[in-house]
Amino acid sequence: ELKVEQNPLFLSMQEGKNYTIYCNYSTTSDRLYWYRQDPGKSLESLFVLLSNGAVKQEGRLMASLDTKARLSTLHITAAVHDLSATYFCAVDYAGNNRKLIWGLGTSLAVNP
Amino acid sequence: DADVTQTPRNRITKTGKRIMLECSQTKGHDRMYWYRQDPGLGLRLIYYSFDVKDINKGEISDGYSVSRQAQAKFSLSLESAIPNQTALYFCATSDGTPAANEKLFFGSGTQLSVL
User: Fold this and answer.
1) Chain mean position to CA B41
2) Close Cβ partners of B16 (under 8 Å, ≥ 6 residues apart)
3) Is B100 part of the contact surface with chain A (CB cutoff 8 Å)?
4) What is the pLDDT of residues B55-75, one digit of tens each?
5) B-chain residues within 8 Å CB-CB of A103?
């Protein structure tokens, strides 16, 4: 069965702290995405990870991919309130988004 | 103006009614998708279309149909709505070129409630 599991599902953290969100997936895939969704809003793409060892960074967010462990991480450095959102990972099992399996999302609240 | 526009933003309807959700895009993308989002279930693909003449079922197409009227327009219909189709529906597009890595661009969503 194709599965994508994120943890934690809920995360409350203080501004200035660091934390990591984990995304585990069940079967080999060469493509993994991270998306962000603000409350009541649409989703926007953060990162596309295409190969083992891939690392992408944007501001305080850094994503990495270990295809051998079937694991991606989204690391938050020195969190700020503006990062409060729900973060989704999605794994493309068949190419071209034809079988894009989504994690349930990690709801992040960054508190002053 | 939004690149991917969905109408309506909210809709309340009754069981058995026919409903159409519309999506239009100005991104010039060939590929369009319909997803539904349910709390605790994440996003699931309903239908996708890689060009005007190409329509494909996703993982949960039962009870839904689609029409790709033009490159820029992709509509989703619920022929006879039922309460478990209450969800947030998203339209998305992607550029089919390898350089774009198939990342999705989403509309603002349509919250549908079936009573």
Assistant:
1) 17
2) B80, B81
3) no
4) 999 989 999 999 999 999 999
5) 42
Name the nearest CA neighbour of A50 among A36, A62, A33.
A33
Comparing alpha-carbon positions, the chain B residue that sits nearest to A88 is B42
CB A42 within 8 A of CB A88: no
Chain B residue nearest residue A105, CA to CA: B42
User: Chain B contact for A43, CB < 8 A?
Assistant: yes
Six token digits for residue B20: 């159409």
Place of tokens 């969704």: A37
Q: Give B48-55 contacts, CB < 8 A, sequence gap 24+.
A: B48/A97, B48/A98, B49/B74, B50/A96, B50/B96
Tell me the per-residue pLDDT of A34-66, one tens digit each, with 9 for 90 and over. Answer: 999 998 889 999 999 988 889 999 999 999 999
